[in-house]
Amino acid sequence: MPILDSHSFEFISRSPEQTRRVGMRLGGLLQAGDLLCLVGDLGAGKTTFVQGIAAGWGSADAVSSPTFVLVNVYRRMDGGRFHHLDAYRLSGAAEAIDLDLDAMLVAGPLVVEWAERVWTALPGDYLRIQLSYVNENQRDLLVSPHGSRSAELLEAFRRQLYGA
Q: I need a surface site. Which of 40, 106, 108, 131 has the fewest CB within 10 A?
């Protein structure tokens, strides 16, 4: 795990419900063009976290892992769209580019699970969220920004979780 720097923060979730609630806080801050890159092994809580993000963003759609369909689209009542890409089955960046990531980002926020498989296809401004399995109920979330918008997003997220 990388060493924590002053621009990153770490959060220990003590239950799947808490992981969803933390995701909801982040989801409420997202806007079109925001990119969240989730990194973590199977069972690290990525999909649980995305369930919270989508709910906080305002979607009532059921969230599931898009491993076999590659991309799920969640909608809000105002017509907004939130894309959820699972890069696990992609062969690399070229396949991700073929999915038209730019169009997804114009439409709304984009969350990429297994982002490390397609880094070179992704824009340079993103919030990286490393999820790690601690035990049956606990997950470690290490959040770090890459770019100016993601730095703003991280600060707003930190305030959501911890106050001023």
A: 106
Evaluate if residue 143 carries a pLDDT over 90.
yes
Identify whether the C-beta of residue 104 lies closer than 8 Å to the C-beta of residue 110.
Answer: yes
Relative orientation angle of helices 16-27 and 148-162, to the nearest 10 degrees: 130
Query: Residue 143: which domain range?
Result: 9-162
| CATH classification at residue 16 | 3.40.50.300
Residue 120, burial from CB neighbour count under 10 angstroms (0-12, 13-18, 19+): exposed
Tell me the C-alpha distance between 127 and 114, whole Å.
Answer: 13
Q: Tokens 């114009």 sit at which residue? A: 106
Residue 147 placed within a domain: yes
Give me the number of domains the chain comprises: 1
Report if residue 152 sits inside a domain.
yes
Q: What is the pTM assigned to this prediction?
A: 0.89
Backbone angles phi, psi at 19, to 5 degrees: -60, -45
- Model confidence at 13: pLDDT above 50: yes
Is there a contact between 84 and 111 (Cβ–Cβ < 8 Å)?
yes
| Closest to 112 (Cα-Cα) out of 19, 35, 18 | 35
Helix (H) and strand (E) counts in the chain:
5, 7
